[in-house]
């Protein structure tokens, strides 16, 4: 699988992942993410989840998804491009989780 994130320093990404894992274990994930991300960033993540869900689980053309979610074509295209390079196992896992099938 291609690395889809190229950090300035890999240890920064690993430290973030470490904190997220600890936050999950200690039931503090939401608090951690609220501290780390601005309201706009959190809204962007929510939109990305909606985009990925629509791309994975509907037969709608990208243009229609763009119009329904009121976002740019470039944003939809970025989501579509990520789905082409991400590990198929995680793509299937996300699809199942978003649709309550697992």
TrEMBL record:
Is this entry keyworded Transcription regulation? yes
Any Gene Ontology CC annotation: cytoplasm
What are the GO MF terms of this UniProt record? DNA-binding transcription factor activity; sequence-specific DNA binding
**Subcellular location field:** Cytoplasm
Entry keywords, A to Z: Cytoplasm, DNA-binding, Repressor, Transcription, Transcription regulation
Mind telling me which Pfam families this protein's record contains? Trp_repressor (PF01371)
- DNA-binding region ranges: 62-85
Q: Which GO terms describe its biological process?
A: negative regulation of DNA-templated transcription
The principal localisation class reads cytoplasm
Which superkingdom is the protein from? Answer: Bacteria
Family per similarity comment: Belongs to the TrpR family.
Role: This protein is an aporepressor. When complexed with L-tryptophan it binds the operator region of the trp operon and prevents the initiation of transcription.
Record note on quaternary structure: Homodimer.
Q: Which PANTHER family match?
A: TRP OPERON REPRESSOR
Can you say what this protein is called? Trp operon repressor homolog
Q: Which organism is it from?
A: Vespertiliibacter pulmonis
Q: Kindly list the organism's lineage.
A: Bacteria, Pseudomonadati, Pseudomonadota, Gammaproteobacteria, Pasteurellales
């Amino acid at each position: 699988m291609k690395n889809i994130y190229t950090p300035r320093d890999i240890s920064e990404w690993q430290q973030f992942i470490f904190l997220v894992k600890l936050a999950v274990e200690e039931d503090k994930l939401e608090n951690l993410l609220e501290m780390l991300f601005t309201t706009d960033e959190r809204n962007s993540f929510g939109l990305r989840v909606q985009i990925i869900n629509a791309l994975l689980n509907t037969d709608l053309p990208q243009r229609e998804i763009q119009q329904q979610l009121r976002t740019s074509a470039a944003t939809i295209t970025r989501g579509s491009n990520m789905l082409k390079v991400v590990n198929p196992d995680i793509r299937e896992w996300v699809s199942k989780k978003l649709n309550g099938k697992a």
